[in-house]
Amino acid sequence: MEQAGCLPVMPEEIVTLDRAQGRVTASPVWASESSPHYDAAAMDGIAVRAEETNGATETFPVDLTVRSQAVWLDTGDPMPSGYNAVVMVEHVHRIDEGTVQIMAPVAPWQHVRTLGEDLVATELVLPENHRLSPIDLGACAAAGVTEIPVRRRPKVAIIPTGNELVSPGTTPLKPGDIVEFNSLMLAGLIEDWGGD
């Protein structure tokens, strides 16, 4: 590439997520944690064994005993061991403290965010040479990544020359003075393109 007149690839540096916006990955980024890292309720409601809700309707609800057949939980709560679905609170009628009626059946793993549903530990999150967006940074955070290998930003010097050039805001302007604005414009473009 250098023989073709192109600049060499910039070396790698490690930056934290809060400093990575707009940078370019220097190597692939892999998940260090699964997301979610446990089976989680996706809805407020009752954790159940799906097979115990078969045939449930509003006309013929299925009665379940709280604690032994049904466990109340909120969105994001870990699924209790032995339970494989969540009945949304809208489809649950509380008879008393120990009994609920289920008004709709659920399939296994319905309304459950299973371990690794979004990302699995060791899964590729981002490829090499990828420009980082806010969404990418969120995915990295969810995957347990706190630092990212990125390409160093190239340092670019802008040196305007000419006796006729004057700084913006110079007053009074004399005939022959030219306000030097290119360096301001070029510096902004260089920053947008990933340079310093």
Secondary-structure map:
Blueprint: E1 12-16, E2 29-30, E3 40-41, E4 45-48, E5 62-65, E6 71-73, E7 85-88, E8 92-96, E9 99-102, E10 112-113, E11 124-126, H1 134-142, E12 147-151, E13 165-166, E14 178-179, H2 182-192
Parallel strand pairs: 13-14
Antiparallel strand pairs: 1-12, 2-11, 3-10, 4-6, 4-7, 5-9, 8-9
Provide tags for this entry.
three-stranded antiparallel β-sheet; MoaB/Mog-like_dom_sf; MoeA_linker/N_sf; 10% helix; elongated; alpha+beta; Molybdopterin biosynthesis moeA protein, domain 3; Molybdopterin biosynthesis moea protein, domain 2; 196 residues; 3 domains
Distance from N terminus to C terminus (CA atoms, Å) equals 22 Å
Instruction: Detail the poorly predicted runs.
Output: none
**What is the strand arrangement across the widest sheet?**
6-4-7
What is the count of structural domains? 3
Q: Tell me the number of helical segments per DSSP (H or I, 4 or more residues long).
A: 2
CATH architecture of the largest domain: Beta Complex
Number of strands: 14
Counting helices, strands and paired strands, the structural category is: alpha+beta
Helix-strand string: EEEEEEEEEEEHEEEH
How much helical structure, as a percent, in the residues? Answer: 10-25%
Strand content: 15-25%
Estimated radius of gyration: 29 Å
Note the main sheet.
3 strands, antiparallel
Protein name: MoeA N-terminal and linker domain-containing protein
GO molecular function: molybdopterin molybdotransferase activity
Domain MoeA N-terminal and linker: 10-144
InterPro entries: MoaB/Mog-like_dom_sf, MoeA-like, MoeA_linker/N, MoeA_linker/N_sf
